[in-house]
From TrEMBL:
CDD domains to which the protein is assigned, alphabetical: FN3, Ig
The protein's name in its UniProt record: Fibronectin type-III domain-containing protein
Transmembrane segments annotated in the record for this chain: 295-319
Statement: the UniProt record of this protein carries the keyword Ribosomal protein: no
Keyword rRNA-binding set for record: no
Domain Ig-like: 9-88
Alphabetical UniProt keywords: Immunoglobulin domain, Membrane, Transmembrane, Transmembrane helix
Domain Fibronectin type-III: 104-201
SUPFAM superfamilies with a match to the protein in the record: Fibronectin type III, Immunoglobulin
Amino acid sequence: MNIQVKCSPTLQMAFPEDRIHGVTEGASVYFFVEARSHPSPDFQWKRTFNNGTNVNLPSDNSGNKSNLTITNIKMEDFDNYTVSAHNNIGHWEDIKFELRALDKPHPPTELSSEATAKSLTLSWTPGWDGGPPQTFTITYSTDGNKKNISDIPDSPDSTRISYKLTEGISAEKSYSVEIFATNSQGSSEVVSWEPITTPALPSFKVNSITIEGEQALIKWTLDKDFVDRVLVRAAGKTKNENFVETNVTDFDQDPVVVGLPSGSSFIFDFFVYKGDDLLLSQPNVQPGGGGSTNLGLIIGMVAGMLALVALSVVAFFVIQKYRKPKKGDDVELTPKR
């Protein structure tokens, strides 16, 4: 059984996606829409003038698809165009398209950024490309050092673009960053981010590592405001290829619990990240440290000192027992002498 549900038309697809054509005089273009509708709708294209008046235009329609073609474009054809669709269930509001003369691109908008101690990630929304393909150029500087990154490609669907800067980026620096767009017709105006300051490198110190069965309990000091995760690699001390890695993202754990590979002795490497940036590392850390190690050291020292004292006392009495008396040490043994 074939069941068809009636529905009013809604837009399923439009071309171009940004609904803007940039062309030269004498060229030909087309605008296209496809509706989701049952029954198939009636389409009506219009040209809308700046004074609010409009004129109906003929189009090529087939089922749920409609196509408006404009040929041999003249200067007066650069304007706004709309299309509506309706059936006996309902209709959609006018969908606007625009025909523009080729031009320089519009500048990027909605600038944002994210900084770590080792990188700047810049994001923006592309402006209209002016018709021809556009690229972007970023200029950034600090302490008199200036760098350019050119030919950054446009997004294929005019969505936001993100670009990561790493060269010349260091902790606790203020950067001035600018961007502009370029196409075959020229360049847009330059727009700037507010000055971006990179944070300091986070502090990180392993205080103690205690082995309990198949787990290691780790206490550390971490500046977690500048960190996303810490990668802990526990490896066998004799076979480094035998290791277990744990990504720690919950910094409220105390102690942090990580798994261990098979073996009896271990060595640990720590890697501190913000996003994809490796901020710092602490390799070849041995188990121990912290309060438990200090207490053991104290107990060991006391026990060693006691053993040394006992050994000294025994040695003294042994020496006294077996040493030969000297002449000056003669003792009167009988009254006659």
